[in-house]
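Protein data sheet
==================
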Amino acid sequence: MVSQLVRFWRSAASAVAGLLFLALFAVFIVQIGARFGLNMPLAWTDEAAVILYLWVILWTAAWVVPEREHVVFDLLWNSASRRVRQAMCVAGNLLVGGLAGAALPASWDYVHFMGREGSPVLGVSFMWIDLPFVMLLVALVLRCAWAIVQALRGQGLEHELRL
């Protein structure tokens, strides 16, 4: 049941990322066509492209890109014993997850506060523009907690990490 839910979430998150990227690409094409083809730059396309870019990057980093694909410094990891890797994994994830968890309340307060302001051209609430940052923090906390559980079980320590 849990694995089905995880697979569904991964598929849905990938679909959302794909749709966001498609929307960004479409806005970019409209922007180029209006600016260079019609000699009529559209202000809304610049703003929409920035908003969509922010969403694409943060959404994808939070929910789509597997942990093993994130950039890591692995020189010490690859030369460490299994026990040391376990300790490094727990300590590193406690640090990153703890910092993300500590930043979460203040970040949510700020994003929620900014909900009263709108973007200059489209009038999109800044809460919706900045929301993927909060999602990234939530994802970091969840991923780090899961990595700690896995490390304490002795799982996920045998592979070599790569840059």
